[in-house]
Amino acid sequence: MFLDQLKNQLNENQPLFIGEETALRSAVLIPLVQVDEEWHILFEVRSFTMRKQPGDISFPGGRIDSTDPSPMAAALRETHEELGVDPKTVTIVGTLSPYVASSSFVIYPFVATIDYNQIIHSYNKEEVEEVFTIPLKWLLDYEPYMHSVSVEPVPSLNFPYEKIMNGAQYQWRARSMEEWFFDYEKYTIWGLTARILKHFIEIIK
Predict the structure, then answer these.
(1) Are 30 and 42 in contact (CB under 8 A)?
(2) CA distance 56 to 117
(3) Please, which residues have CB within 8 angstroms of residue 28's CB and are 6 or more apart in sequence?
(4) H/E run at residue 106
(5) How far apart (Å, rounded) are the C-alpha atoms in residues 25 and 87?
(6) How far apart are CA 200 and CA 165, in angstroms?
(7) What is the value of pTM for the model shown?
(8) What percent of the chain has pLDDT over 90?
């Protein structure tokens, strides 16, 4: 009886990873737009007055609020707030695998088509410094480059070393993180945006 009940519980929908329920969850939209009858991807330059990551290049999107019924709804809401795009005019093409940046941070990316002519006149200048597009053909031909960043754990001052083997002499394991870069004209795309972009382009290829 116990095993049957356990089997049913394990077969029910489970989180993407242990800790997803308490992680910082964000959703982004990869906007496909047509410019001169050619498909482009649209990017935002975050306003220089923003408190976090001013001037960085990103996709529209942001944190999933408790009032958002789904990650997709959050991506559409954020796109509306940042670019002034009516969610009813957005066509979702598909969903990418979530990007688990760490055990406490996950991003849900969605691919959609939107009207570029609507954006260039309506984006929120308090949050977005400017918008620009890159031809999909250019991205398919481009080879991004990578630099490694070493990430080392730093325990808190009150970490209970007395409870673990070797105590304060415990050998914490550093990890190497890949940072990808795309250079297009005067713009450099890197960080989480570059990781998601690279994955998307690899799918198309």
Answers:
(1) no
(2) 23
(3) 58, 59, 60, 61, 62, 75, 78, 107, 108, 109, 110, 196
(4) strand 105-113
(5) 20
(6) 43
(7) 0.87
(8) 60
